[in-house]
Amino acid sequence: MVFPQGLLHFQVNAAKIHAKAIVSFSSASPGLQILDFALFANNLTSSLVGKTTFLDPAQIKKLKGILGGTG
User: Fold this and answer.
1) Would 12 be classed as within a structural domain?
2) Pairwise CA distance, residues 49 & 59, whole Å
3) How far apart (Å, rounded) are the C-alpha atoms in residues 45 and 71?
4) C-alpha–C-alpha distance, residues 4 and 16, integer Å
5) Are 49 and 60 in contact (CB under 8 A)?
6) Which of 49, 35, 48, 41 shows the shortest CA–CA distance to 69?
7) Hey, CA dihedral for 24, 30, 36, 41, is it positive or negative?
8) What is the residue range of 53's domain?
9) Is the pTM here over 0.70, yes or no?
10) Ordered per-residue pLDDT tens for the chain, 71 residues
11) Fewest C-beta atoms under 10 Å: which of 32, 61, 67, 68?
């Protein structure tokens, strides 16, 4: 699989058996994006975050308050 730079992604081993992965990065210092901050420490609207996370608006506002997000 190829992931564009900055795209949040994850993989799940649904078969629950041993799996192997070969990973390569685009540079020697590829960086790290923490999902919690990417979703809740920003100015995205709570309705948009709700559509992507299936959380209720009150929970989203609570997380945005803790992590410094707005919207």
Assistant:
1) no
2) 11
3) 5
4) 27
5) yes
6) 41
7) negative
8) 35-67
9) no
10) 777 777 777 778 888 899 888 888 777 777 777 888 888 998 988 998 998 888 999 999 999 999 998 87
11) 32
